[in-house]
Amino acid sequence: MKLLIVDDEKLTREGLCTSINWEKFGIFQVFQGDDGIHGLELIKQHHPEIVLTDVRMPRMDGITMAERIQELYSDISVIFMSGYSDKEYLKAAIKLKVIRYVEKPIDVSEVEEAIGEALVNIEFARRTRSSEQRRHQENRGQLALSILYEFALEKQEVRCLLDTLDLEMNDHTYLFTLIIEFLHPVLEPRKEDIKNLLQRFGEIAKAQKRKVLYALKGDSHLILHVYHNEEERARTDTYLSEYWQQELNGFGHFFIARGRTVQGVANVYQSYNDAVILLQSGFFHDQDSILFKSQHRGTAVVLENRLEEWKGALRERDESKCNAIITAMHNELQSSHNLLPSQVKDIYYKYFMQLESALNQNYALAATPLAESETIWGRIEKCKTLSELSRLLLEQTGQMFKIYHRESEENPIILQIKDFIRKNCAVDMLSVKDISEQVYLTPSYVCTLFKNETGQTLNQCITEYRMERAKEMLENPRHKISDISVAVGYSDANYFSKTFKKNVGLSPSEYREKMLK
Question: Hey, which end of the chain has fewer CB within 10 Å, N or C?
Answer without folding.
Answer: C
